[in-house]
Amino acid sequence: MSRGMFVIAILAIYIMSFLSQMLLSGQFINRVGPWGFALGQAALTWAWYLAHARRLRDAGRTSGLALGIAIVYALAIVLLLLIVVSTMPASSSISPTAPPAEDEPMLMTYFLLMYLLAMLFGGPMMGLLGCVLIVIGLLLLSPMLIAFAYSIWTATRPPVATP
Questions:
Q1: What Å distances lie between residue 43 and 16, 47, 139, CA to CA?
Q2: Which of 37, 77, 124, 133 is the most exposed place for a label (fewest CB within 10 A)?
Q3: What's the distance, CA 141 to chain centroid?
Q4: Confidence (pLDDT) at 54
Q5: Do 13 and 72 contact (CB within 8 A), yes or no?
Q6: What is the Cα–Cα distance from 26 to 87, expressed in whole angstroms?
């Protein structure tokens, strides 16, 4: 895969991955559950790996590290799904006549995020809890940051000259 085609493919994959977050909306989760998001992320992770493997083959390198990064990213998605599913209301607690609270899991997540940000940046000193939360946030974001940096590195590898 040439550099130009790789950049186009990776940009499309990253844009679709960003847009796939809409599959976590309350309306979609209430109808399909988290499986639509999980299947979408699995397909995007596979496409990410294939694009990197083809580009690395063109550059004369192995794709083992790309596979490792894809696995770590998949584990991060599993963690995200566990968080989303744990914040979903139980189906037994919803009465059959009442309309479902479509955005309740996302609203709970936003309120929790706002509360944590207010705790971190509301006072003059963060304290131990603030430092721990920042470290946990960086650990949760690290698979995405590593994958993005690896994509840049892969795109800059020169192709191997064919005899």
A1: 11, 6, 24
A2: 124
A3: 8
A4: 92
A5: no
A6: 11
What pLDDT digit, counting tens, does each position of 130-146 carry? 677 777 777 777 888 88
> Hey, what are 43's tokens?
């397909």
Span 57-89, pLDDT tens digits: 988 889 899 999 999 989 888 888 887 777 766
Tell me the pLDDT of the chain averaged across its residues: 79
Token pair of 118 as six digits: 């207010």
Q: pTM for the complete prediction?
A: 0.70
Torsion sign (Cα): 75, 77, 80, 85: negative
By residue range, what is the domain housing residue 124? 3-155
Two tokens, residue 2: 């040439």
Q: What is the DSSP letter of 1?
A: -
4 and 156 Cβ atoms separated by less than 8 Å: no
Length of the chain: 163
Query: Is the pLDDT reported for residue 109 higher than 50?
Result: yes
> Measured between alpha carbons, how far is 131 from 118 in angstroms, rounded to an integer?
14
CB atoms within 10 A of CB 148: 12
Give the chain's domain count.
1
How many angstroms separate the CA atoms of 9 and 83, rounded? Answer: 30
- The DSSP-derived string for 13-79 is HHHHHHHGGGGGSHHHHHHH-THHHHHHHHHHHHHHHHHHHHHHHHTT---HHHHHHHHHHHHHHHH
